[in-house]
Amino acid sequence: MKDHLNIPDHNKLFQTEPYVKQREGKKAFEAPCSEQETAEALAYSKTSEYKDKNFARKSLVVNPHKACQPLGALMASLGFEKTLPFIHGSQGCTAYFRSHLSRHFKEPAPAVSSSMTEDGAVFGGMSNLIDGLENSVALYKPEMVAVSTTCMAEVIGDDLQAFISNARQKGAITEELPVPYANTPSFAGSHITGYDSMLKSIISTLYKRSGIEATPGSGEGTGEKLNVILGFEPYTGNFAEMRKILAAFDTKYTFLGDHSGNFDSPATGEYSYYYGGTKLEDVPKAANALGTLSLQKYSVKKTLEYIEGTWKQQTVSMSAPIGITATDRLVDAISELTGLPIPAELIDERGRVVDALTDSHPYLHGKRTALVGDPDLLIGLIQFCLETGMEPVHIVCSNGDNGFKGEAEALLAASPYGAEATVHIGNDLWHMRSLLIDNPVDLSFGSSHLKYAAKDAGVPLIRVGFPVFDRHHLHRYPVIGYQGTLNLLTTVVNTILQNLDDDSSGFNHDLVR
Amino acid sequence: MGLDIEANKKMIEEILEAYPEKARKDRQKHFEINNEELINCGKCAIKSNMKSRPGVMTQRGCAYAGSKGVVWGPIKDMVHISHGPVGCGQYSWGTRRNYANGQLGIDNFTAMQVTSDFQETDIVFGGDKKLEVICREIKEMFPLAKGISIQSECPVGLIGDDIEAVSKKMAIELGIPIIPVRCEGFRGVSQSLGHHIANDAIRDFLMGKRELAETGPYDINIIGDYNIGGDAWASRILLEEMGLRVIAQWSGDGSINELAIAHKAKLNLIHCHRSMNYMVTTMEKEYGIPWLEYNFFGPTKTAESLRAIAALFDDHIKQKCEEVITKYTPQMDAIIAKFKPRLEGKKVMLLIGGLRARHTLGAYEDLGMEVVATGYEFAHKDDYEKTYPELPEGTIIYDDPTAYELEELAQRLDVDMMGSGVKEKYVYHKMGIPFRQMHSWDYSGPYHGYDGFKIFARDMDMTINSPVWGLLKPGKAGTVRKEEAGV
């Protein structure tokens, strides 16, 4: 349908003359800085003197690349069948977590709050938790309620174990309903810490309740199989990719935490609160598996410790397998854990992706990159850059620890392409802005939040990780495995080619590239 | 199912049966079906501004969201510290689309997340010392920042930090206003108290603090417009076109100077009454500035409001006001002629903020659409008193409805469109109910004023009449039924 009425939206409307005049007129009341002052301050913000001051700041945090613990706990909770995330504390937090996840996945993120207010601060949140459990179970009929805390509940020291046990005694919930809980203070760690705490709590709670005695490798209940953990995973497509790889091996497996159903549900005309997720009965049986393979390690540390310590199971953990070498390691690990041979179809797929890399490598080679993200994603991206001939230069990880820094540095040191790289942990995107301006790169990789610094520095941004708010559907496409590597390669090379076209002055607007 | 009073009463009762008794009794008080008595009563109102029930999936936010997210955050030349742990600032970062002119990070700090990122040690030992350092570092990193606000998060209030003392000390040391705002999320029952607290801070720290070089008879303020998608700009242009001079715009694209000179205006125009009524009543008391609530959604209400505003001025303004209306009327007629036939009779359900449900009503009516159920997340008694007369008998009115209640209602009423926020959006997409985010204008806008109505009308049409809604249910062998696809 042709739009005969010219309806300019905000991008066009405010560039029209009346609005430009309005903007100028308004300045008379703003007491603004002069154009010169602003230009000077902008120029100053791009100097190395400014960069040094930026890196010297001790307490101020500007544009950090991390969220808080209960958001991760919410994601972990939605990885299990018919599980209602219940966040104990002030209600605004829950609204924020739900919005944040909805903006990334473009999907509903159901969760309830115990809605504590001032009286909760004084008297504690027990009655809120008990009433909240009763109400939420009546309304949303979950088969498990996963309780995490906000800073408010943590600061006043609410005792979740006692409160939940009182809720059972009062009959607000039945004895049969599993209610794992995790302390997830927002003033420690980040969303990945919260993910880990809740995942561990869910696994250990369901295991304890079952009465099963772990006998690794016995396969009791479901046959010999593998446990697979994806961790704080912003890509539903990565679950699908892992399913595909495991299906090629023809091995049985249990995902410990699978939120892909909840964040990638079909539109059918009906809405259900719960889609997919790991079956609750499969969790204790996972104690009898051959071993556990984890595709993240920094976001599931406590969970892996639990599995090793309590289930006495072999664990193999790696960070996001992005690129050929890292995916080879993933495939080898599955083969070793299960004793199954590597399927021919994966070898073929590998060959096709390598073929694609050989086709594109001239455009990638020597491209200097800047990377921002969660620790596990960054390890994957570094591997990808190094093996495609790109040179990582700036790596910023707001929620990385020394372990991550050491691993990243070792990885970089092992390749001539990593020679220029510096790894910054605990730093933020305002630091990254200085890095990008002071020592320019060709491409940046990171979440939507990096778009401001990337724009200031004039660097194209490849959106990868969490959160991606301003592009659609990226999370549906895997970035791990051979296929994920191909997806990422396609985005990267075509971004470079698009920029070549955008920058061409005419004679070099080439037809064939 | 539409505006049948008895049938709607029965429907609400059935929906509420799902609750345990205590919660049901409470929720019953938050529903009403509009009737003649309520419309004429004047002071009648549903139970509102009460605590949400725990465990029910309320749509509400918190006091911090009201203060930082709504009132203070859009003031562009100040740095707003989300004081406490990292999350609150991260989640409210850039999400309300408060457009502002200026260079981000240089003389405009709106779309930034500045936080004290509390760690355990800050909880144990208090964050006051750290806050001092942060203020100094802000001055270093952002030399053109004209002020700082400290938006306290839950732990700050609980551990007893003295942010007022730090602010006072640092304001002297740094020579810029530093404003403590006690908007901890656990205060009050919703965002609403955060608005009030934020307004009180404006009153105490900035109101009346600066002078305007030259005042004039046509000086006015725009209060309570957050410039979402550029709303305030599309409003301001009309006011200026009719000869008025807008000396302050609160708070979308606002500046600290505008907050401090606003007391020199001859009239306050308030759009979002819920979030800033405290300011206009204060200025009326302190400075004798009259105020007028206006509504720039849809051409009918916009013209009504423009005339009501002009009526407070001389013939010169009144004449120019008519000229403005005359100028835009053909454009509006063309928009209505195009979109009304496509939208006439469509049933809408709304749940937006503390006032927009009432304000947007006129815009829907201009397009021939019918609001069959509406209410507010965090409104007060006065909002409902003003709402009843705007709605026909039989309209369902709800206060702080839960996700469950809204979903049940939307399905039973078989509405053609739901207008609410991002948490709700994708639920309705699954249900096949056309949905529009009426907090952020679904990343579109502006919706205010005449320019805004064009976009509003286009957006409602694209929402309701998209062929995608017809694709939800597969036909034989997975093929799509043609009539549903609108092909």
From TrEMBL, chain A:
<keyword id="KW-0535">Nitrogen fixation</keyword>
<feature type="domain" description="Nitrogenase molybdenum-iron protein beta chain N-terminal">
    <location>
        <begin position="6"/>
        <end position="54"/>
    </location>
</feature>
<feature type="domain" description="Nitrogenase/oxidoreductase component 1">
    <location>
        <begin position="68"/>
        <end position="496"/>
    </location>
</feature>
<comment type="similarity">
    <text>Belongs to the NifD/NifK/NifE/NifN family.</text>
</comment>
<protein>
    <recommendedName>
        <fullName>Nitrogenase molybdenum-iron protein beta chain</fullName>
        <ecNumber>1.18.6.1</ecNumber>
    </recommendedName>
</protein>
<dbReference type="GO" id="GO:0051536">
    <property type="term" value="F:iron-sulfur cluster binding"/>
</dbReference>
<keyword id="KW-0479">Metal-binding</keyword>
<keyword id="KW-0560">Oxidoreductase</keyword>
<keyword id="KW-0408">Iron</keyword>
<keyword id="KW-0411">Iron-sulfur</keyword>
<dbReference type="GO" id="GO:0005524">
    <property type="term" value="F:ATP binding"/>
</dbReference>
<dbReference type="GO" id="GO:0016612">
    <property type="term" value="C:molybdenum-iron nitrogenase complex"/>
</dbReference>
<dbReference type="GO" id="GO:0046872">
    <property type="term" value="F:metal ion binding"/>
</dbReference>
<comment type="function">
    <text>This molybdenum-iron protein is part of the nitrogenase complex that catalyzes the key enzymatic reactions in nitrogen fixation.</text>
</comment>
<dbReference type="InterPro" id="IPR000510">
    <property type="entry name" value="Nase/OxRdtase_comp1"/>
</dbReference>
<dbReference type="InterPro" id="IPR050152">
    <property type="entry name" value="ChlB/BchB/BchZ"/>
</dbReference>
<dbReference type="InterPro" id="IPR005976">
    <property type="entry name" value="Nase_Mo-Fe_CF_bsu"/>
</dbReference>
<dbReference type="GO" id="GO:0016163">
    <property type="term" value="F:nitrogenase activity"/>
</dbReference>
<keyword id="KW-0067">ATP-binding</keyword>
<dbReference type="InterPro" id="IPR024564">
    <property type="entry name" value="Nase_Mo-Fe_CF_bsu_N"/>
</dbReference>
<dbReference type="InterPro" id="IPR000318">
    <property type="entry name" value="Nase_comp1_CS"/>
</dbReference>
<dbReference type="Pfam" id="PF00148">
    <property type="entry name" value="Oxidored_nitro"/>
</dbReference>
TrEMBL record, chain B:
<comment type="similarity">
    <text>Belongs to the NifD/NifK/NifE/NifN family.</text>
</comment>
<feature type="domain" description="Nitrogenase/oxidoreductase component 1">
    <location>
        <begin position="62"/>
        <end position="464"/>
    </location>
</feature>
<dbReference type="GO" id="GO:0016163">
    <property type="term" value="F:nitrogenase activity"/>
</dbReference>
<dbReference type="InterPro" id="IPR005972">
    <property type="entry name" value="Nase_Mo-Fe_asu"/>
</dbReference>
<keyword id="KW-0479">Metal-binding</keyword>
<keyword id="KW-0560">Oxidoreductase</keyword>
<keyword id="KW-0547">Nucleotide-binding</keyword>
<dbReference type="InterPro" id="IPR000318">
    <property type="entry name" value="Nase_comp1_CS"/>
</dbReference>
<protein>
    <recommendedName>
        <fullName>Nitrogenase protein alpha chain</fullName>
        <ecNumber>1.18.6.1</ecNumber>
    </recommendedName>
</protein>
<dbReference type="GO" id="GO:0046872">
    <property type="term" value="F:metal ion binding"/>
</dbReference>
<keyword id="KW-0535">Nitrogen fixation</keyword>
<dbReference type="InterPro" id="IPR010143">
    <property type="entry name" value="Nase_comp1_asu"/>
</dbReference>
<dbReference type="GO" id="GO:0005524">
    <property type="term" value="F:ATP binding"/>
</dbReference>
<keyword id="KW-0408">Iron</keyword>
<dbReference type="Pfam" id="PF00148">
    <property type="entry name" value="Oxidored_nitro"/>
</dbReference>
<dbReference type="InterPro" id="IPR000510">
    <property type="entry name" value="Nase/OxRdtase_comp1"/>
</dbReference>
<keyword id="KW-0067">ATP-binding</keyword>
<comment type="function">
    <text>This molybdenum-iron protein is part of the nitrogenase complex that catalyzes the key enzymatic reactions in nitrogen fixation.</text>
</comment>
<dbReference type="GO" id="GO:0016612">
    <property type="term" value="C:molybdenum-iron nitrogenase complex"/>
</dbReference>
<comment type="subunit">
    <text>Tetramer of two alpha and two beta chains. Forms complex with the iron protein (nitrogenase component 2).</text>
</comment>
<keyword id="KW-0500">Molybdenum</keyword>
<keyword id="KW-0411">Iron-sulfur</keyword>
